[in-house]
Records
---
Amino acid sequence: MAMDIEMRDDDAAVVIKVTGEVDLYTSPKLRTAVLDALKKQATVGVDLSGVGYMDSSGVATLVEGLKSATDAKKDFVVVAPSSSVLKVLQLSRLDKVFAIRESL
Amino acid sequence: MGEDIRLEIRSDARLLGAIRSLVRCYVGSCGFREERVDEVVLAVDEACANAIRHAYGGRKDRKLELTLRDEEDWLTIAVRDSGRPAPAERVQRKRLGARKAETLSPGGLGVQFMYRVFDEVAFEPGVRRGNRVTMRLKCPKGR
């Protein structure tokens, strides 16, 4: 199963909705989307409600997004992570580092 | 009895999804509960992804070997490559966690997942080439 990305861009934020599986093969596409969105808007959300699987390359992508956002004084939000995403963030001991919201 | 499955896989990240499906099916049949199966699938995916990314530097035309066995109440999964041996520092067990974005370093997270999921993890980097990582997990009682 591959990964799909859908962008929602409004006045306040860009929300990147990810569906499918985030792994070494698919995460570069997410990385590009996150870094592009951070150039455009002050708030970027990554909606992970439709992600059935994520590995450490997905976590690394989120970390990179958070670091870029912090450097640029922007907001990076993880939106509605699925249970499998939450588990991987917990396993990484990074679940407290991200701003996690149910919606954006 | 030996191995149940020995699989040769091209070093292409596109194939990770297929590897996960196989591992999910196999580990499920060994009697682990679903949450445990998810963790094992993740750790094996990380082992294969590491070989592709680090040992082979992203080259897609090399080979990985994945073996699965369920013997004497131990699930044993090994991944072998013939690429660049991993530096000892990269495959050490470390403490995870960070509170602030500035101090985050996501590198090597996959290796730590492997340590956290399995009861025993042994990395055997070759002298000139190749790596083998063997991961073992005690099977559930009364399965």
Note: Chain A touches chain B at residues 1-2, 21, 23-25, 53, 55-57, 59-60, 63-64, 66-67, 70, 84, 87-88, 91-94, 96-97 (CB under 8 Å).
---
Amino acid sequence: MKRRLEALRKNWYKFSKNPVSVVGLCFVLAVSFIAVFAPFVSPYPSNAGRFVNFADASQPPSLKHLCGTDVFGRDILSRIFFGFRYSLMMGIVVLSLVVVPGVVLGLVAGYYRGTWIDTVIMRVTDVFLAVPPLILALAICSVLTPSVFNAMMAVSLMWWPWYTRLVYGLSSSLRNEFFVQAAEVTGASRSHILFREILPNCVSSIFTKMSLDMGWVILIGSALSFVGLGAQPPTPDLGTMVADGAKYLPDQWWIAIFPAVAIMITVLGFNLIGDGFRDLFALEEI
Amino acid sequence: MSILKFLGKRLALSIFVLFGLSLLIFTISRVLPGDPVRMALGSRAPQWAVENMRTQMHLNDPLYVQYYYWLSGALHGDLGQSLFTRRPVIEDVKEFLPATMELAIFAGLIMAVFGVLLGAISGRYSNTWVDNSVRIFSYIGVVTPSFVFAILFLLLFGYVLNLLPTVGRLSPWIHRPPVITGMVSVDSILSGNFAALGDAIKHMLLPAISLALGGMAQEARITRSTISDNLGKDYIASAKGFGVPERMVMLKYLLKPSLIPTVSILGLDFASLLGNAFLVELIFNWPGFSRYGINAMLNKDLNAVSAVVMILGVVFIIVNILVDLLVAWLDPRIRLGAERGK
């Protein structure tokens, strides 16, 4: 336990020496803080959802409304703050649904490389990877009633194969290492070999992929709500806000641009952290 | 020989994957809660009309029978009737697919060429101001959704600067080239109509760049890191030491092997490009397959959605095979059939 803490401390030291990843961490922490405490930090918390105030409609950015207001008079900054909640939730829910099955399938397929188990798992994975993820997610969303929850389900259904493929590559090469063979010889159980011998060696790759994927999932989620197959108005979702704002574009640019910037900042944060991990663990192929 | 064998293996696998995909998309399209026929005919259509159409579409049969009808139809080029455009889906495909292919190929070329170029420059002059600005550009490219690029370009070039057309494929006053391939730019080259070619490219520029930027940034990042890694390797130093001309070292010894990782992810980048086309075509009102697809999805047009996904699956598989061939050409370790490094 103590040794692990020590290793963690060392990794943190190396991570914190990389200014790029620290900037990313700051972005992510700021966005998470705002998301969690949205009702307290946003200037007009009541403006997030169903709210109309035509007296203040379509105001350009000012000191009173830092990012302006939309056509219903809702404060855009407050809606962005609440929108972070949906973006982060999208990422967290999708990844927590996807990582465990994806990783387990990849571990098993890699360990049983060359048998029918490998063939079945990896060919099914191939089928899911045969279409660009956004297209299949759109198709799934289109048959369901559009909502944040269904968008999460659709993206999750599309996302596990990436983890299977990643872990498959690692575990199929690790299974020939001496420490795995040693464990086999001493009669360790399969679950011990898979989860205690092979898995710990994949953790850094999985972690790195997860932090990069937070960004991708948020991007896909915003794309789904942009076309109207994800979150529905008046939900303060960033993608929906960009889509709404796009209608008023040349003149009332602030309605679309600020939510778009908010998406970019969130994704950038996770990307920078992911790059930091990648450098830290000296990984190449993620 | 080994290339042929490799191709054969890939094709066999592709057929299996497409079969799996057809099962998947069929399942997805039939778990729809609600009645697609009722939606197509409207709530005021009489019950007998709905029943007729259900029987006609085999919707009353068990699922595996429906799947059989659907698959055997699809194999004969009959993708069913679009419930929304009321035309055979295959007609819609013929009409809309070329426009998307034209746009996607154009965007893919921009992505690959400029991605490699930027990455190579950035890697060659790493840690200078050139490198830093390319890196900042790549971060922006990676984190910006393509629909945001599309909106920004629409705003900037279409309205503010008014430099480029933002809607459609040709200006109304341009003499239209005859439809040969359906890709306007190719048709105008084939018919020697260069006014139309210029106009078509102008129309493609904004949507293509919005699609290309994300992948371009990825390509640039990967190329940069391989180039700057390889630049420090002994074989480059020794080539220079032997007095090989700088240009030759850079192009032949440095660039070519450094392209392998870049080309390997081209397939993935092209995939996200195809996906993003669904949004970008909608924004630029590009009369393509993806706009057709997204409208089919928004209208729950089952046959059309299944066809769109299947056809883009086929396109994607072809692209991946091309990418694999390209990698094999670049990487003698793979080409000569040796054990793959990874």
Note: The mean pLDDT of chain A is 88.
